[in-house]
Amino acid sequence: MMKLSKINKTYKTGKLEVPVLYDIDVEIEDGEFIAIMGPSGSGKSTLMNIIGFLDAPTSGDYELNGDKISAFHENQLAALRNKHIGFVFQQFFLLPRLNAVKNVETPLIYADIAKNERTIRATEMLEKVGLGDRARHLPNELSGGQKQRVCIARALVNDPEIILADEPTGALDSKTGQQIMELFTQLNKEGKTVIIVTHEEEIAAYADRIIMLRDGVITEDRRLQA
Amino acid sequence: MNIVESFKIALSSIWNHKIRSILTMLGIIIGVCAVIIIVAIGTGAQNQLTDELFGADKNIIELYYEPFPSEDGGEMMWIEPEITSQDLAEIQGVPGVQVAMGINHGWGNLIHNEKQIEIEIVGVGRDYFYGKNIQMLEGRPFTEQDNDNMNRVIMIDDYTRDKLFKEDEEVIGEIVEIDGNPYKLVGVYKSTIPEEYRWDNGEGLMPRTLNGMMFGAAEIQQIQILGASAETLSETAEMAAAKLTEIKNLEDGMYTYWDMSEYEEEFQTFYLTITLFIGSIAGISLLVGGIGVMNIMLVSVTERTREIGLRKAIGATRGRILSQFLIEAMTITLLGGLIGIGIAMLVTMIASQFLPFTAVVSPIVVMIGAGFSALIGIVFGILPANKASKLSPIDALRHE
């Protein structure tokens, strides 16, 4: 469970202070499927980065399963990300020189998993996202949808509770986007907490709960009825 | 992440940028190669010079007579005491003396069938053959009787045989002529004169009694001692010199020894200093190579900013990013160093064919070369690796 209280975030560019988030209060239960929506510049990506402790809030408290995130050292946060969070990015961020299996393996390297087990688990994950036959392909030999599946496999491989996806369908056509969203829905049904940042209504419609952001403030937090 | 894993990642990264990696390594390759070749040639030349100056036989030391300085400090006429076979036998009895050798010298033209060659004629006793480890190729060495009876016999070295008896199968028993006097050739031995010091002259051995008589010289002009071991050689020589001074009852001078080992040490140190000095000038190219590695690693960090961001997002700590880039830099320089060592070995092997001596690549220099090139990678990799490890994941992922 994640609990954010009075989270503020201000970016400093030179002497100018640019406020991005104001007093954000959110609680997220395990197993939720949440869409964070808002126009560009509303602070939704920053909020996701804070949830994934890629970024630290300027002020406010963030607790993950009762632990205060601000108390952790940078290296502990890296380990926490590795264990609890799987990231899916709009731009994929696959390592271009590594094939699909090797890309999926990378989080396991930092979890100190032995080579053989890494390959086995990465291959399993690729099969799970429907890419068993593309395991040896390099990223540039894959379509956009396939690349995003590799990313999802990479996010899942260390079995985290939380999947954070930043505009996961932003670079995909709508049909492929739907397939990806169905995959997220399935993962959510298997018990993962899924948090998606998007500005598309159709994508947000897959979620159970929508958090609307505008100019750094939550303007709406509603649950959808299935 | 274990070292082997990091090393493999580094290798694949290097392999993926082949041309860039080779160009980066070039500085290290040239540097290591230059240093090793210079040290190898230096060591080879030093060994050669040491052998020539001090002889390969380090157990031999020479005794000589030194008159005391006169009271007014001026030069004084002095007569060297005459050494006899009996004196030599006394020295032979000094502990630590394996062989005491008495030698005299003469020069003459050796003539046979209208061919001639100028040779140095060394008058020796039986002791000489053992003391100098003379290897017979044909015939026999002298006997005691040859010496005692002043038999007119001579031995020549293989060089002289070549010049004088090129086509002849059998030379033992031939009569040769020196300054109008006939001698019987009884043996041919392997020459001990270094090629550079031969000056087209041959060498012959004669009984020293005969040689002394022929050239009007003392039977023993020069005393050399073969010591039992190199460590106790000076000690032995000192005792032998004292003994000789004592039995000759000397008042105006004394016997002393020519301790080459002292000069040899000085020479070795001097030569080593020169080699190291030139080597370190060559080492400057290693420094330049190291800066090249640093430069390319900085470029690599900038190029791979998003990769670093991603790795951090999925759980890489600072230390892991740091070690990844450090190991990569180290792998580049180590590989460069190993290639440099390989080339250097090849070059010295080929060069040795054309040089008057064998260039020596010592294992220690190779190990230092490999270790040093790895060290360069670490030293010059720290800055870029540190830069990479400090990147914030968010900024790194946003990097265009």
Can you walk me through this structure?
- The complex is a heterodimer of chains A (226) and B (400).
- In chain A, a hairpin with a 2-residue loop joins strand 4 (59-64) and strand 5 (67-68).
- In chain A, the strands form 2 sheets. Chain A has a 6-stranded mixed β-sheet with strand order 6-7-8-3-9-10, sandwiched between helices.
- Helices cover 34% and strands 30% of the residues of chain A.
- Chain A is globular.
- With 226 residues, chain A is of the alpha/beta class.
- Chain B is an alpha+beta fold.
- Helices cover 56% and strands 18% of the residues of chain B.
- Chain B is built from 13 helices and 10 strands.
- Chain B has a 6-stranded mixed β-barrel with strand order 2-3-8-5-7-6, surrounded by 4 helices.
- In chain B, helix 2 (18-54) packs antiparallel against helix 12 (363-390).
- Chain B starts with a helix and ends with a helix.
- The mean pLDDT of chain B is 81.
Broad shape of chain A = globular
How many helices of chain B? 13
**Whole-Å distance between the termini of chain B?**
28 Å
Number of E-state strands of chain A? 10
Helix content of chain A: 25-40%
Q: Report the total helices of chain A.
A: 7
Mean pLDDT of chain B: 81
Low-confidence stretches of chain A: none
Oligomer: heterodimer
Order of helices and strands of chain B: HHEHEEHEHEHEEEHEHEHHHHH
Structural class of chain A: alpha/beta
How are the strands ordered across the major sheet of chain B? 2-3-8-5-7-6
Strand content of chain A: 25-35%
Average pLDDT metric of chain A: 92
Category from helices, strands and their pairing of chain B? alpha+beta
* Helical content of chain B (DSSP H or I, runs of 4+): 55-70%
N→C terminal distance of chain A = 22 Å
Please render the helix and strand layout as text.
The complex is a heterodimer of chains A (226) and B (400).
Chain A: E1 2-13, E2 16-28, E3 33-37, H1 44-51, E4 59-64, E5 67-68, H2 74-84, E6 85-89, H3 100-110, H4 115-128, H5 144-156, E7 162-166, H6 174-189, E8 193-198, H7 201-204, E9 209-214, E10 217-223
Parallel strand pairs in A: 3-8, 3-9, 6-7, 7-8
Antiparallel strand pairs in A: 1-2, 1-4, 4-5, 9-10
Helix pairs in contact in A: 3-4, 3-5, 4-5, 5-6
Chain B: H1 3-16, H2 18-54, E1 60-67, H3 85-92, E2 97-112, E3 115-124, H4 126-131, E4 136-139, H5 144-148, E5 153-157, H6 158-164, E6 175-178, E7 181-189, E8 202-207, H7 208-215, E9 222-227, H8 233-247, E10 253-258, H9 260-303, H10 305-313, H11 318-354, H12 363-390, H13 393-398
